[in-house]
Structure formats: structure tokens, C-alpha cells
């Protein structure tokens, strides 16, 4: 058989349909399969158990019959009018209803609102009918709860309630009070509670406006190893018979009209501190493949929240390591959850063939903060900020021989020509006559722009080779005279193919040399080079998508017609 669903709008977490005296509850009945003729009954269980009928628009001794004709696709609606007397009671009533299968239905075909139980051999569900005749007060907690189960008192924060009363007659009072001496001690110490002047809200005769109670949780510098959980109560005072709510898992009402619930105190003192250390203070290229820094968290690591730390990586000393050697970025963030005491930052140490000499790299804790489990900030200053540790890296490559002081490079130059790709908006640079002839014959979208800059002739052996890379993904070229950048690209960026030496340049400034400026186009993921100061300034002023990256290399003085 297909399912037949009985639903209601307001169903409590604890499995019953919620209503209040005088309201009308609407039950909607719908089915999944429309082909059959089906019938069943809803019967009222023990209708007179309280001495009066809880449903007023039905004869509780007779069942409610529900029938679907074959092909009937429309849901059925059952209206239940709840009783409304003028008697003040300190309880709610529950009317139970039994589902009795009939023609072409069976017990397993039904779903009902909330928790489906059994009454004898039958399926049943309940309607809870709340009292509305008392001069009661509704309480709402406006500040944080711990998983909707307890009131939380965060040191340095507030506890806030909203109270609304249903009757305007007479003066009214509600108190927020501890339930025992230990909790009173806690309240005096952390909440400023005074038994002679307790926390309360007051209405005067005729006043039905909402009242608010705000309690400041003191922020001191003293860690108290108190029991985290206390029991406090919202207590009805003059002309208030009952406090209703707040709706929390571990809160509840007492027979004398009070609401009692736990208060969970969170101390922000003696919070964890951060530190930095290294498992190995020295590493050697070719022997070790990684180097590591350990960010530590010590102290009270069991608090209900997280600790975040921001780390700065940088080279240090006379020969500082470049982070690109390790594929690392300068800024690292780590986060500690409940109970965690260690986070590792591990960098790869490539075994390359480039001599870098002995280098050092340092990690420093530059910032930290503590937050509660719900991301509320506790402290943005954490003990241990500025903690640092360093690693020394020994090179296994042969050092170059001692060379005499460099002499000025002879000013023997060649032309490097620049082309503009009209399809992609990118630039291309070449010194090759054969390559220029091929571009002219086969690539009409490449527009020649003349000499881009000069370069040293091949016979100037002391000049540095600028290598050319081709990006197989985007079709762009990159030129670099940096051995570290060349090694980084070859080792970490497989979509780039090295095409060999493009031309010769100088990596140092000198007489008779011009600077070649490099830009990165963030829109096209490409680079642009120019030896013209005027063009550099124009790009910087008018093309915001171009990021200036500085001087790429130096070339013989370039005269561009």
C-alpha cells in the first residue's frame, strides 16, 4: 500500500502537536497513491479523562471517518477546536488520537505528526493544549545558548532576556535568581548578584509592554576553577503565576510556576598561549626533503572554542632564503580546535643543481586570537605572539669558482623585436630572423611593433642568458634571467615548457645600460616587457589590470625610432 500522511503545522521537538486553549488545530491528510478507494478512522483516546472534553467541535465518543474515493487526488482537512475555559491551571493537557486502519489501509501505511506511538494495538499521536488563563509571563533568551540547551555566560559578554505578559491588571514582577548557595556565590562573583537587590523586571498596573533584563558578565583577570554549570531560575513574583520559556533542552517548569535551567559559565582567563619551535634546526639539501616549523598551543586547551594563529615566513641573515625555492607563501594561517596542541607547517626542500649557499628561513607568530565555539571573539591578543624559530639550510651543490671583479660588459648589441597578437592581446619578443620570417608568413594576427629593446650579442659571454618559457595552457611566453625563477618554474609548474635561451642581458645595473620593466596582466595571465620609461608610466597610469613587478633585467641602451 502507499503511504497516507497526517500532518499539522506546529509540531514540537518532543513529538506532539502544539496548541493553546481556544485555538483551532488543522490536520491535513494526503496520500501518495490515488488509484484505490480507502478509508480509516481517527478516534479520541479517553476523551473524558480530565472531566471535560478537550475538543469542542466533535463528539469525542464517535470516530472521525476519513474516506478517499478511487482517483481522488485532493487532501482531506480535519478541523479540531480546542477547549477554552476561564480556569487558571498550572498544567497543559494532551489529547491523544488513535489511527484505526480501514478499507485498503493497514497500520504501516500511516505517518502522523511528531512521534508516532502506540495505544494498545493502535497507532496514536497527541495534541498538547497549553493554558492561557493565567497571568503568566513569556520569557525569551536573546543571547547565546550552548547548542540550544543551556544559558551561556561568556566572560565580558551579557545575558539578556525579553519578557512579555498577557494581562495588564496589577503590578507584575519576575526575578532571575540562583537556586542554591554555591550558585549564589558564583552569581555574586561573576554576575554582580545581590540577594538584597536581585535581578528583576517590573510592570506597573496597566502596562503590557515588553521588558528586558540585561546582566553583564564581569570580565576580570582571574581564572576561577568553578563548576561550569549552575542552576538558576526565572521566578514569578507579584501578580505573576507562571514564567513560560525560554524553550531550551535542559530547561523546564516547576509546579510552582518557576522556570529552571542551567547556566554555563565560560572564563576567558588563563587562555592558551602560542609558541613556535622546529623539530630539526638544520637540514641539508639532498639529505632531507622537507623542513618544518611547529606552532604550539599550551595552557588551557580544553575551552569550548578555537585559537587562530597567523605566521610570517621569511628569509634571514646575510644570505636569506627565497620562499619560491620551497614553493611557499609568506603568510600562513593555522587554527586549533578543542584539545589540539600542535600544528605543523612543512615546506618542500628540492634537491636542485643550483648553488644557493647556506641559507636561513624564519617563522614568526605575528598575530593570534581566541574565539568561542560560535565564532564570538574572546581575545584578539594572545600570549606568545612574536614567538619565532629558524631553520638553517645547507646546500649540496658545488660553489662557483672565485671570479675577478666583474668588468663592464662590452656594448655589442642586437635588436629584440616586439609583436602584438591581435587575437589574444598578448606580446611576443624575439631576436631570431627565422622566427620573424615565419611569423610574417604564417601568423597574420601578429602585428610587428618594431624594436622592443636591445640585448647583448652572443659573443658577450659574460652576459646572462634570459630563458624563454611557453605556457601550453594559455599560449603565452615568459622571459626570465633569474636562475631561481627558472628553477621554480621547471620544478613546480608543469604547464610551462622551457624553450632555451632567448637573448643575453645583464642582471646588474651599469653604465650604458637601460632597465627593462616587467608587468603582469591579471586579466590575461601574461607578462609585458618594456624598456621605455614613458610607456612604463602610461601603463601604470591607464591600465590597472597590469601589475608592475619591477626591473626584469638590464640591456644595452635602446634607441627606438
TrEMBL record:
Q: Which UniProt keywords apply?
A: Calcium, Repeat, Signal
Q: Pfam families, from UniProt?
A: Calx-beta, DUF5648
Asked if the record carries the keyword Protein transport, the reply is: no
Q: Which InterPro entries match?
A: CalX-like_sf, Calx_beta, DUF5648
Domain Calx-beta, by residue range, is: 267-397
- Annotated DUF5648 domain ranges read 416-555
Q: Which domain of life is it from?
A: Bacteria
- Name of the protein in its database record: Calx-beta domain-containing protein
Organism field: Teichococcus globiformis
Instruction: Recite the lineage of the species.
Output: Bacteria, Pseudomonadati, Pseudomonadota, Alphaproteobacteria, Acetobacterales
Amino acid at each position: 500500500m502507499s503511504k497516507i500522511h497526517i500532518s499539522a503545522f506546529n509540531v514540537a521537538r518532543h513529538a506532539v502537536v502544539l496548541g493553546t486553549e481556544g485555538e483551532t488545530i488543522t490536520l491535513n491528510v494526503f496520500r501518495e497513491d490515488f488509484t484505490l478507494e480507502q478509508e480509516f478512522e481517527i478516534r479520541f483516546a479517553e476523551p473524558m479523562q480530565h472531566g471535560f472534553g478537550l475538543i469542542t467541535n466533535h463528539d469525542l465518543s464517535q470516530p472521525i471517518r476519513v474516506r478517499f474515493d478511487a482517483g481522488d487526488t485532493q487532501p482531506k482537512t480535519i478541523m479540531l477546536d480546542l477547549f477554552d475555559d476561564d480556569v487558571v491551571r498550572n498544567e497543559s493537557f494532551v489529547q491523544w488520537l488513535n489511527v484505526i486502519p480501514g478499507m485498503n489501509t493497514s497500520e504501516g501505511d500511516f505517518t502522523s505528526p511528531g512521534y508516532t506511538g502506540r495505544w494498545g494495538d493502535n497507532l496514536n499521536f497527541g495534541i498538547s493544549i497549553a493554558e492561557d488563563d493565567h497571568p503568566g509571563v513569556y520569557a525569551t533568551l536573546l543571547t547565546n545558548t550552548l547548542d540550544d540547551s543551556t544559558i551561556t555566560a561568556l566572560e565580558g559578554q551579557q545575558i539578556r532576556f525579553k519578557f512579555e505578559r498577557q494581562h495588564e491588571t496589577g503590578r507584575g514582577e519576575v526575578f532571575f535568581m540562583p537556586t542554591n548557595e554555591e550558585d549564589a556565590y558564583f552569581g555574586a562573583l561573576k554576575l554582580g548578584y545581590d540577594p538584597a537587590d536581585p535581578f528583576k523586571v517590573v510592570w506597573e498596573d496597566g502596562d503590557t509592554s515588553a521588558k528586558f533584563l540585561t546582566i553583564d558578565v564581569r570580565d576580570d583577570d582571574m581564572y576561577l576553577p568553578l563548576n561550569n554549570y549552575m542552576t538558576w531560575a526565572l521566578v514569578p513574583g507579584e501578580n505573576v503565576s507562571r514564567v513560560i520559556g525560554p524553550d531550551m533542552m535542559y530547561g523546564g517548569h516547576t509546579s510552582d510556576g518557576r522556570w529552571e535551567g542551567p547556566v554555563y559559565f565560560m572564563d576567558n582567563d588563563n587562555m592558551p598561549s602560542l609558541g613556535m619551535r622546529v623539530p630539526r634546526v638544520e637540514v641539508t639539501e639532498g639529505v632531507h626533503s622537507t623542513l618544518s616549523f611547529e606552532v604550539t598551543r599550551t595552557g588551557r586547551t580544553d575551552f569550548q572554542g578555537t585559537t587562530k594563529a597567523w605566521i610570517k615566513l621569511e628569509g634571514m641573515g646575510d644570505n636569506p632564503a627565497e620562499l619560491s625555492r620551497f614553493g611557499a607563501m609568506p603568510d600562513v594561517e593555522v587554527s586549533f580546535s578543542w584539545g589540539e596542541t600542535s600544528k605543523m607547517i612543512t615546506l618542500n626542500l628540492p634537491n636542485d643543481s643550483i648553488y644557493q649557499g647556506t641559507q636561513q628561513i624564519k617563522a614568526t607568530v605575528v598575530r593570534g586570537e581566541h574565539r568561542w565555539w560560535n565564532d564570538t571573539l574572546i581575545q584578539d591578543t594572545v600570549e606568545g605572539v612574536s614567538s619565532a624559530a629558524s631553520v638553517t639550510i645547507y646546500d649540496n651543490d658545488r660553489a662557483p669558482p672565485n671570479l675577478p671583479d666583474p668588468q663592464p660588459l662590452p656594448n655589442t648589441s642586437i635588436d629584440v623585436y616586439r609583436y602584438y597578437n591581435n587575437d589574444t592581446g598578448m606580446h611576443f619578443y624575439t631576436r631570431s630572423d627565422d622566427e620573424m620570417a615565419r611569423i610574417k608568413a604564417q601568423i597574420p594576427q601578429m602585428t610587428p611593433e618594431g624594436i622592443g629593446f636591445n640585448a647583448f650579442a652572443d659573443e658577450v659571454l659574460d652576459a646572462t642568458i634570459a630563458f624563454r618559457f611557453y605556457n601550453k595552457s594559455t599560449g603565452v611566453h615568459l622571459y626570465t634571467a633569474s636562475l631561481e625563477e627558472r628553477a621554480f618554474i621547471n620544478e613546480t609548474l608543469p604547464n610551462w615548457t622551457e624553450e632555451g635561451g632567448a637573448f643575453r642581458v645583464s642582471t646588474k645595473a651599469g653604465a650604458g645600460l637601460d632597465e627593462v620593466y616587467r608587468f603582469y596582466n591579471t586579466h590575461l595571465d601574461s607578462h609585458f616587457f618594456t624598456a621605455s620609461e614613458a610607456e612604463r608610466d602610461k601603463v601604470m597610469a591607464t591600465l590597472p589590470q597590469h601589475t608592475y613587478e619591477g626591473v626584469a633585467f638590464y640591456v644595452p641602451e635602446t634607441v627606438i625610432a
